[in-house]
Each structure stands twice: as structure tokens, then as C-alpha cells.
Design goal:
3 helices; mainly alpha; 79% helix
Length: 85
């Protein structure tokens, strides 16, 4: 199996496992689980490696987290402006 086919198989398997493994009665929680599964697929396609296997140093993980959180704050501020109009 070449790397592309192996990655595609892993994506499908991981998505199926994540979405079937945790069927929850609360539809909000289920939607979040589904979003995590889809996000994982995007990351695997983009980077070709799972977060678990990514050898980034700790400071790089902290930097990525800070950047993601800063983006989240910007998105929230943008929504607040829309709501206040």
C-alpha cells in the first residue's frame, strides 16, 4: 500500500472510529465530536502525521496554542461587534 492509500485508509478508519465510538445522546456533544473527527482528517491530510506522532518541541506546541487562542479571541471580538450593531 503506497503512502497516499495508507493515509486515506487511516483517515477513513480514524473518522469511523471517532464518530462511532462515542455516540452520545446530547446532540450538541455529538456535533462537537463529529467536528473533532473532521478536523483530525484535515490535519492528517495537511501534515501527514498525527499530533501524537508530531515531534515538535514543547515550546513550539505552546506557541501554536497561543496563536490559536489569540485567533479565537479575535473571532469572538468580531462577533461581539456584529451583535452590538
Amino acid at each position: 500500500m503506497d503512502n497516499n492509500n495508507e493515509l486515506e485508509w487511516k483517515e477513513k478508519y480514524n473518522y469511523a472510529m471517532m464518530t462511532n465510538m462515542a455516540k452520545i445522546e446530547d446532540p450538541v456533544v455529538q456535533r462537537v465530536i463529529d467536528l473533532f473527527a473532521k478536523r483530525s482528517q484535515v490535519g492528517m491530510r495537511k501534515y501527514g502525521i498525527s499530533m501524537q506522532d508530531n515531534p515538535l518541541p514543547v515550546l513550539a506546541w505552546i506557541q501554536h496554542s497561543q496563536e490559536e487562542l489569540m485567533d479565537a479571541i479575535l473571532y469572538l471580538e468580531r462577533l461581539k461587534v456584529d451583535i452590538q450593531k
